[in-house]
Write a structure and sequence with these properties.
The protein contains eleven helices and five strands, in the order ααααααβββαβαβααα. By secondary structure, the protein is of the alpha/beta class. It folds into three domains: about 60 residues; about 55 residues, no CATH class; about 170 residues, Nucleotidyltransferase, domain 5 (2-Layer Sandwich).
Amino acid sequence: MIKNPLKGDNTLYRDRINRYTGFVKEYEQIKSGEHKEFRYVKDWASARQIDKKNFLKYYGRYRQSGKSWDLLPQKRGPKYKSRRPCEELEQKVIELRKLGNNKYEIASILQAQKDCNFKPSPSGVYNIFKRHGFNKLRPQMKQEKRRIIKERMGQLGHIDTHYLSKHTITGSTQKLYIVAIIDDYSRIAWADLIERIDSLTVMFGAMRCLNILKAHYHIRFEEILSDNGNEFGNRNYKSKLSHPFERLLIEMGVKHRYTQPYRPQTNGKIERFWRTLEEDLITDTDFDSAEELKEELLQYMYYYNHERPHQALEGKKPIEMLTKNNK
């Protein structure tokens, strides 16, 4: 439960509580069948432009505590920032596992702890998983899939856009997207928040990502792989010079490759990046504004490239692949 935020002059909080107190009254009228306008909660929530799931969460806290400020949203931070070891080794491992860390991430976290006398290897972490029933095995691949493996940085980059839930920003229904590019060899990536996925907006977002990867990681791509979405052009596009993203790649001397239709696994590395980003940064996190989300995304990209061990890299961090490549 949060502390009382209503002490002093806080008009924003008071206005929200007054508004939600009215919502509580209406909601209880609907549940008792006494509301004059609405019969169903979903119709009422749609008319009031509120998210039903979030309202019920605040309502439950309010009914349990009886304190009006529990109708306010409680701010939570990204999951990856909360991944901290506990005192007992096995309890550390299990709690970190529950937060979604793999065996390489947990081993790396424990290695960095000065007060931890016994620091298990990734295989030792896995044995702890097994003893406690957290070793969910992945099924074997039922069919051989096409794999794209490169031998040095910049040979191939994967690009894609990702839609964020309209409730990612607290109190807002604005549509937001992320465009990201990841290097096939090193898994070094960069992402940028955008408001639309039209070809021009995606082009500028991609250009910002390419500039960061070039300036900070010295990655210059020879080829870029995308799906067949309109924002990236199309392999049958008659005049690529008139398409913003296609023109950008032409001007940079980068070859544009496309995934096979209906085979998203061809671009699997960027698809896996989206899953990781959602788990680590977006899911169960409250953002007050798009600006805050941009700042958190910036911090997360540094964490992803410099601090987060990557299972596909045998526990190495992407930045270590950069060092290896430059030797």
